[in-house]
Design brief:
The structure is a homodimer of 298-residue chains. Chain A has helices spanning 10-22, 25-32, 36-50, 66-95, 104-121, 174-179, 185-191, 203-211, 215-224, 231-239, 249-258, 284-297, and strands at 55-58, 61-64, 98-102, 127-131, 145-150, 160-171, 194-197, 226-228, 244-248, 268-278. In chain A, α1 packs across α4 (66-95). Chain A contains twelve helices and ten strands. The first copy, chain A, starts with 9 loop residues before the first helix and ends with a helix. The longest helix of chain A is centred in the N-terminal third of the chain and has 30 residues, at 66-95. By secondary structure, the first copy, chain A, is α/β, with parallel strands linked by helices. Chain A folds into two domains: 10-95, Orthogonal Bundle (Arc Repressor Mutant, subunit A); 112-298, D-Maltodextrin-Binding Protein, domain 2 (3-Layer(aba) Sandwich), CATH 3.40.190.290. In chain A, the strands form two sheets. In chain A, strands 4-3-5-10-6-9-7-8 form an eight-stranded mixed beta sheet, with helices on both faces. A two-stranded antiparallel ribbon of chain A has the order 1-2. Chains A and B meet through α1, α4 and α12 of A and α1, α4 and α12 of B. Chain B binds a DNA duplex (30 and 30 nucleotides) through α3.
DNA sequence: TCTAATCTGTGAGAAAAACTCACATCCGAT
DNA sequence: ATCGGATGTGAGTTTTTCTCACAGATTAGA
């Protein structure tokens, strides 16, 4: 009835199949990456399961008996079907693109400049990147993983590779700093134009908290500032010299390096972290490789 | 290239196959005679091998994912081929007759009277009996086992079920004993007609040694005796009252029981034993069953 | 004929895999 | 609300499998 009714030990069948095909215990052992002794025992197990000799030990070699030959037919077919099916699935999985969703700002300012290198370093990944505005459900079918800044706790039913603590930094062009008194953070807040983003309403608060600035000073400064819908626009505004922006350091590291933006104060940790969130059922190996690459790069 | 190239763990594949077919971990576990936890772990192993979900955990049940369904096709076929092949071989082995070679005398005097009962007790054995005159090579293809009296040491490359020590006994008809002085063994040897067989030339020597009779007396007695080619003729001669025969006790137990033959002295062990000698590659299970039956019967 | 090379088989102990048990969790039905 | 029936999991145990080192046996060739 059931397919599995009193099947012999499967590993013994595999050893038999390999030995029958190779015509030698030693060759089969090599193929299976075990010692010949292991194969020899497996064959013994199988023969005692059936209660009959499957090989004739003739001299220093082996020959299939009539029963062995009969068994080989079906077992050989079965194993080739098995390996064919598994190989096909594996191939399909390897060929499938790995879809990463990523916030637009991070995508534009950090990931896209590195995409070529990423694809060169991890060609098997066949990375496909889509931009995820606002919140995107990582459980959606067409996304394997999401890159996002988020504060713990993270949902327990998803695996998350933590890549880097989120650090925010206040930046502006050199021109802005020249025209803005900024001996201290409080100075800056009192006179500068704050640029803010709707997607991270607490950013300035976190920064001023860390810098020990009075919340009232911040509230007043905000009155004079401007708010943008996306972080991306905020950064463009900062680059255009519209005021002082607050943003994760990774997004402005390049501009700071090149002198386009200047950050007078060190970056501040927010408690959140940039992480790679895996969709359930996603390939942990490929995601792990991606996470390792990202972590190295960050 | 090789069929076994990096196949997933086979037991995990079996668990997957059963689970996919049954649609439930619990049902699969029952079929495989393990706990559901064991199956659950195997599935996990397989999923992590492929790096993808094969089942979707939906509510209290499971559904195959697209990948799982793809895998099931090939794996299901493979396992059904496997179990079909194994079942066919097993069936063929069970249906094949078990051929036992047996010396003619033992066959005629002991085994044939019990054959019906043996076949009734062990119907799966499908016993076929052939007579083995003189020495018969148990390695011959058409014989699964040989029943024989032999003294140790036995060849190491054959398995031998020892059934019973050989015990020889001096027998004759009541008439013969009446006409032969037989207070002692020496008496008997001095006056009786010894019947001997060419196939067991040492039988009388072993007997007289055990009875403590002078070898010279035996030599003299032998002069007056007669020698038969086979044990079978020897026994016929004894039953006809031609003299005193020496034979394994099992061959004359029936006649002694019925009073046709009388054994004045207890049987003597020769050091040899009646054993079931297996041909290499013979079914140890069936042979074991036969040996157990024979041992019980003896 | 002896020797070296090349197989397979096996005993003992080590390593790895699989299993069980008991409990946790989660959904759906009474 | 709770119970029944399903899956998942941590810890520890049992079973299987493997390796290592050696033995026996056969073939090729000096």
């Amino acid at each position: 009835m059931s397919s599995a009714a009193s099947l012999p030990p499967l590993n013994a069948l595999r050893a038999f199949e390999a030995t029958a095909r190779c015509g030698s215990v030693t060759a089969a052992a090599e193929e299976l990456h075990v010692t010949h002794g292991a194969v020899s025992r497996q064959l013994r197990t199988l023969e005692s399961h059936f209660g009959t000799a499957l090989f004739e030990r003739v001299g220093r070699g082996l020959t299939l008996t009539a029963h062995g030959r009969e068994l080989q037919r079906s077992v050989g077919e079965a194993f080739s079907r098995l390996s064919e099916g598994c190989a096909t699935l594996k191939r399909r999985l390897d060929e499938a693109p790995f879809t990463l969703a990523c916030p637009g700002s991070l995508l534009a300012r950090w990931l896209i400049p590195r995409l070529d290198r990423l694809n060169a370093d991890l060609p098997a990944l066949r990375l496909r990147v889509i931009s995820s505005e606002h919140e995107l459900d990582p459980r959606r079918d067409d996304v394997d993983a999401t890159l996002r800044f988020a504060a713990p706790p993270w949902p327990a039913d998803l695996s998350v590779f933590t890549l880097r603590p989120e650090r925010i930094v206040a930046v502006a062009t050199p021109d802005v700093w020249r025209s803005t008194p900024s001996e201290t953070a409080a100075d800056m807040l009192a006179h500068g134009t704050l640029l803010d983003t709707a997607s991270r309403p607490q950013a300035w608060t976190q920064w001023t908290d860390a810098m020990g600035v009075d919340p009232e000073t911040l509230a007043a400064a905000r009155q004079r500032g401007r708010t943008f819908e996306h972080l991306y626009y905020l950064l463009e505004a900062a680059l255009s010299g519209l005021g002082v922006a607050i943003a994760p350091d990774v997004l402005v590291a390049g501009e700071i390096e090149r002198g386009q933006l200047v950050a007078p104060w060190p970056a501040v940790e927010t408690g959140a972290a940039l992480g790679l969130w895996l969709a359930p059922g996603a390939d942990e190996r490929r995601a792990g490789a991606l996470a390792a690459w990202l972590k190295r790069e960050l």
